[in-house]
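We emphasize that the prediction below concerns an isolated chain of 70 residues; any contacts that depend on oligomerization or on bound cofactors are therefore not represented. The input was used exactly as deposited, without trimming of termini.
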Amino acid sequence: AGGFMGYLARSGQTSPDAMRRAMVYGATMGSFAVAGFGVRGFESITPEDVLARVRLFADLTHVPLAEQVE
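Result of the prediction step, given as a token string:
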């Protein structure tokens, strides 16, 4: 929830696209917490670490459609 709300607060946007991006940041920050077994996972990360993981998450979750959907 913190990553999600933090992204929205920092971006100042609440559009559907901003909400989608916020979900990626929320999941990304959650992954740091899980990897560090709690909030200690946040102690040593940098903004660059977050951005790198956001990019990985976006690459993993982008699913192009195989055929035209109407």
